[in-house]
Amino acid sequence: MWELSVIRALGLLLRTLPLGVCRAAICLAIAGGLVAAAGIGAALGQAAFGLGEDRTAAGWGALLGLGFGVITFRLLRGRLLWPLTAAQIAAMVELLDRRPMPIGRGQVAQARALVRQRFGDAPSLRALDRLVRGVIRTATGLVDGLLVELVPIPALDRLARATGSHLVLTLDLIDGAILAHALRTRSENAWEAAHDGLVLYTQNARTLLTNAFWLALTGWVLAGLLFLATLSALASPVWVPGAGLLLAAIFAWAVKSAVYDPFALACLVQLHLRLADGQDPLPEWRGRLTQVSDKFRQLGDRALRWTAVEAQDA
Length: 314
Known about the structure:
Layout: H1 6-15, H2 17-49, H3 56-75, H4 77-80, H5 82-96, H6 105-119, H7 122-143, H8 154-163, H9 165-184, H10 190-203, H11 205-233, H12 243-276, H13 283-292, H14 294-313
């Protein structure tokens, strides 16, 4: 099913442990923020609509508060978790290419410096990432008809494609793999490197998408099992209806995001770099993406404008 090295991925996680600890701290802070949002929502709901000992209003308030917290986190993703994810990808690429990385705080500083060197400031990285993610959506749809079944059961495979769940599950992993390619080229023009990386993704989409799908699905299955285990631990009576469900869901997400997601990313990064090694972007795939994706054309325009500016400055 998988065409990657789990042992190598675990080795990358251990060697980028300082960045992993920072990521875990951010995930813990986000989880704490979500719990606080649910708690504030419960308090407001009970104060505004609660009747005596009836906690139904508190439960609805907690759910709305959690929803508000999730939306806020999604809007702030580019400022909270993604910069650190990019730094950890940069460290993984350096280690895969057998370049030394320091240990401790020095690793965090050097990885962030590599990201700034390749992609510039944080707004530039976010702008690049938005375009890349937009192209991935189009590119995956473009090559979807050429792929073998992601799921061995035809009915489930058709369901995954019809609902688009295979893209929802794999988007972050493929995004990280393309970023890894842009880092590995060590090109000063990150827009051009990402442009080529997207073409290479379409050339290798059959293998990449299948492995990314199973990696992501495995992560959510493990998160579901952890959710059930945590829920049983919170089975004692609670003060708000559904509080145990919310706390268990937040805890399962935090552990998955802090521990499993970097592992899955390490798996797909090494696979993408191995597949793309020695390959050149094929003109026919570049042409197809140019025809169907406006964001791919925008990415190419940014790459050309960057080159023109650099040439003028020189």
